[in-house]
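I am still getting used to backbone structure tokens and would like to learn alongside you. To get us started, please write out a protein record for me. Start from the sequence, derive the backbone structure tokens from it, and show both lines together. Once you have written the record down, we can walk along the chain together:
***
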Amino acid sequence: MGNALFMFKNHLVDKLTVSDYPEILNLWESSVRATHHFLSEADIQVYKLLISTEYLDQLKLYGVRTDQHILGFIAINRKQIRLLFILPEVRGTGIGIALINYVYQHLGVNEVDVNEQNKQACDFYNYLGFVITERSEIDAIGKPFPVISMKLP
């Protein structure tokens, strides 16, 4: 499993590398298709291209994996969670909490932007104690998907 950085409820958090990008992208897409029902196929393809060609190289990546597969990953930039995605079949098993605990405790990350239309994600962050600090009618690339900025107090 590489260099395990942190364990939470039997979930080891490892640093991910460029060799993990193809699997990260596949995980991202399967998770988005399961949770982001407000996105069209064209939207998914636009975001997938941006993530693969721009975002991943700009972010620090951490994941929870089995011996064979990444089950979930978190991507951060400074003090903000930029991406958090879990394989649909293992959602609700503590992987997201393990990843957030790691970046909060070890890196001081305490902010996130979340699509307002992704109610499950909004509820998840509320459950963890994040509070809304701002709201935007558009996302980071100017698309009409409202985004809520949240922060742990």
Observations:
- The beta strands are 4-8, 11-15, 60-65, 70-77, 80-86, 111-115, 131-136, 147-151.
